[in-house]
Amino acid sequence: MSTASITIAFNPDLDFLLRQLQALASQVRVAIVVDNGSVPPLAQMLPEHMDRVRIIRLPSNEGVAHGFNIGIAEARAQGADRVLLLDQDSVPGDGMVALLSEALDERRANGEKVAAVGPRIRDPRDRAELPFVRLGWLHNRHMRPRHDGELISCDFLISSGALVPLDALERLGCFEDALFIDSVDLEWCCRARARGYSLYGVTGATLEHRLGEGRRRIPGGGHIIVHPPERLYYMTRNRFLLYRRGYMPLKWKLKDALRALAKFAATMLWVPPRSQYARMTWRAVRDAVAGRTGKLRP
User: According to a count of CB atoms within 10 Å of the terminal CB, is the N or C end of the chain lower?
Assistant: First the structure.
């Protein structure tokens, strides 16, 4: 096995993380867990007998992007040639890594530049499945599988579950520390697509992934994914920072600006604590205009 998994963990649900590591045990060369300052440290909580698990302790939470970059360096040292990126709230399905690897190798054997491949993602709390996305001017195309084993060309993969060859990271660069957490995967995918690389969804591979803190139904039959106020800060600040980037698709910028307004309005109407969400949103816009990046400071 030439794949190393990289999990970014910060005060995780330990039972869920253990399920992840058990699912990875027969699928990867080494499971790298970057402990982003958890209290108590993960090394004190995980069973000592777990094989092929490497824990890297960071003194404080330095964000998802920095954690992935630390893990990528360790994966190279461990002799891997590709990395599987994971959040702490994800559990790979049976044979997921092998299916992703087969798809990656197949496309690369045809001479295609492939930045990453990713699985079908379901939220275990309500079995909602995330579609693969192709960007459009008026609306995005939500691509859903017609049959298992199908490869779906897409414009974006969320980081959790993405299998990335290390040589692509060498050519494209690693993840952007300055973004800290949100839009880290979006920025990297758009950077890759702008340089002629492909992204694929592998419909036979599956991943359980808990997205946000859940969904709240809103009038009209829709729903909104709920995030804590601090997380909304990063989501808002980073999207405004990315609007300035020339390689970010114009079609994404236009639709995302409208989506951001709609999400803010829905949050103000139906998701408490409204005052905290409003303060974090205003601070995010102010910091984006000032060009402030990195971790949110008190």
Answer: C
209, 240, 275 — which closes off a domain? 209
Q: For 64-86, write each residue's pLDDT tens digit.
A: 999 999 999 999 999 999 999 99
User: Can you tell me which residue has the tokens 């330095």?
Assistant: 62
- Indicate if 41 and 173 belong to the same structural domain: yes
Closest CA to 182 of 280, 298, 41, 37: 280
Comparing CA positions, the residue from 173, 182, 191 lying closest to residue 230 is 182
**Could you say which of 209, 239, 264 is where a domain stops?**
209
Q: In total, how many domains does the chain have? A: 2
Q: In this structure, are 183 and 274 located in the same domain?
A: no
User: For residue 115, what is the enclosing H or E element?
Assistant: strand 114-122
Domain membership of residue 31 as a residue range:
3-209
Q: What are phi and psi of 152, to 5 degrees?
A: -115, 115
Q: Is 213 exposed, middle or buried (0-12, 13-18, 19+ CB in 10 A)?
A: exposed
Q: Are residues 191 and 220 in the same domain?
A: no
Q: Are 57 and 43 in contact (CB under 8 A)?
A: yes
d(CA 123, CA 130): 8
- pLDDT tens, position by position, 166-183: 999 999 999 999 999 999
Do 172 and 232 belong to one domain?
A: no
Place of tokens 């990126």: 85
Classify residue 158 as exposed, middle or buried by CB count within 10 Å of its CB (0-12, 13-18, 19+). buried
Tens digits of per-residue pLDDT, 177-212?
999 999 999 999 999 999 999 999 999 999 999 886
Q: What is the pTM of this model?
A: 0.93
- Per-residue pLDDT at 159 exceeds 90: yes
User: Residue 25: what pLDDT?
Assistant: 93
Residue 295 domain-assigned? Answer: no
